[in-house]
Write a structure and sequence with these properties.
Order of helices and strands: EHEHEHEHEHEHEHHEEHEHEHEHEHHHHH
CATH architecture of the largest domain: 3-Layer(aba) Sandwich
Number of strands: 13
CATH superfamily of the largest domain: P-loop containing nucleotide triphosphate hydrolases
Bound molecules: adenosine-5'-triphosphate, magnesium ion
Strand content: 5-15%
CATH class of the largest domain: Alpha Beta
Strand order of the largest sheet: 8-9-7-10-6-11-12-13
Shape: globular
Number of domains: 2
Length: 430
């Protein structure tokens, strides 16, 4: 698909423009022309009718954003990929609001640029095929429930970033449902309005149809569709598991992925979210209390005869205190670890700005981990590592071996079973 797709470049700086043109040519795209901001860009867009627009977003910022907005009006179906030396999340957000599909922070790399364009083209192609009826929408999308036996272990962080990475990197449609019956904060973390929420769907079940669910969905600048939790926890009283089942079924019929964020507690709503999922991301942090609670959660799932193959353990390092702990988590839990997310203090900085780190700081180590997680869940092989990356991996592996902690740092199953616990699953409440 990449080869010969028609691309135009909008870039004020002649040398960066030439460099981008060189990369695009090497990637096999047909560069139809290049222009600066304003009228020049609009004329080029109109005359060449490209399949992709690649735009450099630099000073003057208002002008560059205005140009994107005008080009998006002229070519509403055409994906716009931005690159910029500005990594400020609020600016990235503004760019996405005016129509940018993907945002690459300088230095621009050929491989990353190619991947962003191909993913945007694939997404647009699927959309067109759906519109023309060429492709029947998938009967039922994948439902991913992000669950954990405790609060504050990163469930919402994983749910929001996974949703964003799936939309942006695999080009699929994603609905994110906030089922946190206590402190639903997805809308706050994604900086979205919450005039309407799940509580507006407390209707007779046959009235929870596509139209009703759609009226409560908000599309974030990243492309993720969000069904927010009610602002007041008391509003959950009008919602019962049958409502949740109907909402999730409707969303799964209209989206490739439905991600369910859950509270750090257990109740009938969470139970239904577990029953409905295709994949359960059982989240834990690598400390004794969390591991102990995870053992209990695994026992609870086993007692329900919950299919073991659906359960994927995700270890999230929410604190850098965990950084050096060599915990034999696999042995403690008696189950393979599916994914590990590194500690990254930029996560809380970017969520405070209403942007998941995957969109706000795509080059950070945790963003890369979330993107790879999205690829793993989407069944897509991640891009092959370049020579420099492989060399970097080798150097950090050698460094790690040098200061490897001894076996004393390992936690045994016996030690974990002596750790303090939060209430047993039966005691968790709504
Ligand atoms: N990998 C990480 N590195 C650094 N900080 C993290 C990481 N993951 C999560 N955090 C931070 O940990 C805190 C708790 O994360 P989050 O809100 O996602 O947890 P949660 O399990 O959803 O909590 P709750 O059960 O209360 O909803 C947040 O401040 C978040 O920014
Ligand atoms: Mg949460």
């Amino acid at each position: 698909m990449a080869r010969n797709s028609k691309v135009i470049i909008i870039d004020q700086d002649p040398s960066s423009r030439a460099e981008t043109q060189r990369m695009l040519a090497l990637l096999g795209f047909a560069v139809m022309g290049a222009a600066g901001y304003g009228m020049e860009a609009m004329t080029l867009a109109r005359e060449t009718q490209p399949e992709v627009v690649v735009v450099s977003l630099e000073e003057p910022i208002a002008r560059s954003l205005q140009t994107v907005e005008s080009v998006a009006d002229i070519l509403p179906q055409v994906p716009i990929i931005a690159y910029s030396s500005i990594g400020d999340p609020s600016y990235i957000r503004r760019a996405m609001q005016v129509g940018v599909k993907d945002y690459l922070v300088a230095p621009l790399e050929e491989e990353e640029l190619g991947q962003a364009i191909n993913s945007a083209l694939a997404q647009e192609e699927r959309r067109q095929q759906r519109l023309s009826g060429e492709v029947e929408p998938q009967a039922y999308g994948t439902v991913v429930t992000v669950f954990g036996a405790k609060g504050g272990i990163g469930k919402t962080t994983i749910a929001t970033n996974l949703a964003t990475a799936l939309v942006q990197k695999t080009g699929q449609s994603v609905a994110l449902v906030d089922l946190d019956t206590r402190f639903g904060d997805v809308a706050i973390l994604m900086d979205m309005p919450t005039d309407r929420s799940i509580s507006d769907l407390a209707l007779p079940e046959d009235e929870i149809d596509r139209e009703a669910v759609q009226s409560c969905l908000y599309t974030h600048g990243t492309g993720v569709a969000i069904l927010p939790a009610p602002i007041r926890p008391s509003e959950w009283h009008s919602i019962h598991p049958g409502h949740i089942e109907k909402m999730v079924s409707v969303l799964a019929a209209t989206h490739d992925y439905v991600i369910l964020d859950t509270p750090g507690t257990f109740n009938d709503i969470v139970s239904r979210a577990l029953e409905m999922c295709t994949i359960l991301l059982l989240t834990a942090t690598p400390d004794l209390a969390s591991l102990k609670d995870t053992i209990l959660a695994l026992e609870m799932l086993r007692s329900w005869s919950f299919p073991a193959e659906k359960v994927k353990i995700v270890i999230n390092h929410t604190s850098d205190a965990h950084g050096d702990t060599r915990v034999d988590i696999r042995r403690v839990l008696g189950k393979d670890i599916f994914w590990t997310i590194p500690y990254d203090r930029s996560i809380s900085q970017t969520t405070q700005l209403g942007m998941p780190i995957v969109a706000a700081k795509p080059k950070s180590k945790s963003s890369q981990s979330f993107v790879e997680l999205a690829y793993a869940i989407g069944g897509i092989r991640s891009r092959p590592k370049g020579m420099l990356e492989r060399l970097g991996d080798r150097i950090s592996l050698l460094a790690k071996q040098d200061d490897e902690p001894g076996p004393a740092a390992e936690v045994t199953a016996e030690q974990a079973s002596e750790a303090p616990v939060t209430p047993a699953p039966e005691e968790w409440t709504r």
